[in-house]
Amino acid sequence: MGHALNLRVRRTLAIVAVALISCIFVGDARAVEHTHTLLILGDSITWGAKYKGFGNVTPQLQALGTFDKVIVDGALSRNISGPASTLQNGVKTYAKYLKTKVRPSAVIVALGSNDLRGSIKVRYYENRIRKLLTLIGDIPVVWVNVSRIDSQYYIRASQVFNRVLNRVALDYPNVSVVDWYTMISAKPKWFAFDKLHLQPVGYRARATLYIEIAQNLWNVVVPTTTTTTTTIVAATTIPG
Prior knowledge:
Elements: H1 2-31, E1 37-42, H2 44-50, H3 57-63, E2 69-74, H4 90-99, E3 106-110, H5 122-136, E4 141-144, H6 152-169, E5 175-178, H7 180-185, H8 200-221
Parallel strand pairs: 1-2, 1-3, 3-4, 4-5
């Protein structure tokens, strides 16, 4: 009988322990408010889309009332990767966010224009693209492709980069590509005098594009239906 009593006591204690653990986890879940963060990681084009006198995109993104936190990070001469300081290096910049406990729920990548200067080789572009996508992980990502027309070299390099980006994106189910190249090819007057940066109307168009992408990303991060998808479907998305 004593053995049976001890067995019942052990079972009771085990049940109580499970209940306490469950309460702890529920308490923690309620105490920690989950926030959704959107990060736009770009170069000078993104800087112009953020600048108040041009695109002024940050308050427009905040006005959507979707993501709890919006970070629009555009830096002059920023590459995807390579031998550059943290500010001019997209991979290092993203790693810095992670180090400071910023965990984006979704990312818009708008990099590549400055990487065209280093090479026109497929492997060169692919290595850099994969390095950033691997660091970002499996959260939803939309990558805006590139367009430079400041020389025949950059026209060709833009095309090569975009083809590599399309192909690499197929290996990442969470990644989609938006075709800025085609959009601005139809609106050449959006380019500034240097054929690289944009006129104010171009930056406003870029800001509008970011807003549309952000809305689509929100529907992926917080689905409104029972069907979950990891692919952004939009008119400007390059099909696989």
